[in-house]
Structure formats: C-alpha cells, structure tokens
Amino acid sequence: MNQIAENIIRLKSILGEDVTLVAVSKTRPVEIILEAYDCGQRIFGENRVQELVEKQPSLPSDIEWHMIGHLQRNKVKSIAGFISLIHSVDSLRLLETINREAGNTGRVIRCLLQFHIATEETKYGLNMDEAGDIIKSSIDNGLHNVEIAGVMGMATYTNNLAQVRSEFRYLRHCFVDLKRTFFSEKESFSIVSMGMSGDHMIAIEEGSNMVRIGSQIFGER
Ligand SMILES: *Cc1c(COP(=O)(O)O)cnc(C)c1O
User: Helix-strand-coil percent breakdown of the chain, rounded to 5?
Assistant: First the structure.
C-alpha cells in the first residue's frame, strides 16, 4: 500500500466516525490527490481560489471541495457552482456575496464562521459579538442561499499545548453558545472545524468534529 493510503487509513481509525477528515490538498498536484481519492477520501480542502479552480475540473465530480483559506468577495463567483463548504466566512459582506452567487447558480452553499482564536495578529476571523451580528443579519435579511453550518478556527502556532487547548476550548464554547442562542431547533448548525496536522488530537479532545489535515497525509510541503 502507498504511504498516502496508509496515512489516511491510520487517521480515519484515530478520528472515528464522528470526526470528518478534510484532506488539505493545497500545493499537491492532481495525481497525488487521486491517490487519496483512490483509497476512498472524498473531501478535500484548498486555501487558494486560483489553485482550486485549476484542479477541480480535472478531478472526479463526486469530490466535495472545501474552501479553507481567506476568501475575497470578487473570487466567490468562480467557485460558487461547485464548492461544498466555505470554512472562512469572516464578514457579513462576504456572506452576502456568497448568498448572491449561490442564488445565481441555484444552490445553497454551506458556510462556517471563522473565529479569531489565536494570539497572532495575522490570522483572520471574528469574535463572538461579530459572529452573533452576522447570524442575526443573515436571519433578518433572509439569506436563503447560504446555510451557516458551524464555526472554524486556527490555534496559535506554538509549542505551548495548554494555550492551544484553551483556544480550542474557547471556540467550542462559542459554538455551543451560538447554537443555543440562534439555532435551538436547527440541526444544521453542527460543525466545529478545528485541528490540523500538529494539533488535531487536542482539537478532538476539545470537541472538534471536523479536522483539516495536509502534511500528515501528503508529507511536508
Ligand atoms: C494548510 C492548512 C491546513 C493544514 O495544515 P497541515 O499542518 O498541513 O495539516 C489546515 N487549515 C488551514 C486553514 C490551512 O491553510
């Protein structure tokens, strides 16, 4: 068996049935992505629109593509026809654009609200108040072509595992809070996307149900 298949099988046995594995395929060529596909992986994540729209047409159409990187509004149109989940919604304007482009292609696009949980300045994301405002506005304005399906966050890149844990714990807390406030009887708000190659075990312990893993599947970039 090849190394990629081994890695995926090992990860899936660790994650179990309740945690969804997003194979992060950024920078990997189509042939390598197909190796993962051939051993059953169907969900792939990319962080750049340009790269995503170049690869998507030459890969099988039953792949679920996830956009995990920062998304500019003027790029939404080019992925709206096929994207399965956008992890990186960090403004109402972006959500409105996704809603409009999804409507133009007759789709409903699932989205996650990206939180800023790390101490690094450079990472995008919302705080609790901003996230609440976006959900309220999306309800009030009837954005029917998007479905807010949960939250996403990236922990600080650090060896301080206690800090990573507390950031993940905070994100999970935000999820529970938003669900209670806005979605009480709406099952669709259900995704907590947190955890990457280096920190997915901690993320799962803190309640992640979707991990985004690249280098532990495909090797170092
Ligand atoms: C690259 C990337 C990942 C995966 O990182 P690895 O360390 O290779 O697992 C996860 N999430 C986002 C948003 C990324 O950009």
Answer: 45, 20, 40
Strand duo 85-89 + 146-153: pairing: unpaired
Q: Position 39: which residue type?
A: C
Query: String of b and e for 38-54 (b: at least 16 CB within 10 Å)?
Result: eeebebbbbbbbeebbe
What is the spatial distance between Cα 14 and Cα 201, in angstroms, rounded to a whole number?
9
Which of 8, 22, 68 should be mutated for ligand 1, with most atoms under 8 A from CB?
68
Question: Cα–Cα distance between 150 and 188 in angstroms, integer?
Answer: 8
Q: At what angle do helices 161-182 and 128-140 cross, to 10 degrees?
A: 30
Lining residues, ligand 1, CB within 6 Å: 24, 26, 47, 68-69, 154, 196-198, 212-216
- What is the per-residue pLDDT for 1? 67
Nearest to 83 by CA among 72, 68, 100: 68
User: Count of alpha carbons within 13 Å of 19, Cβ hemisphere only?
Assistant: 26
- Report yes or no on whether pTM surpasses 0.90: yes
Residue type, 51: E
Among 53, 56, 49, residue whose Cα is nearest residue 70: 49
Among 26-35, 47-56, 78-87, 182-191, the least confident range: 182-191
Sign of CA dihedral 126, 45, 166, 111: positive
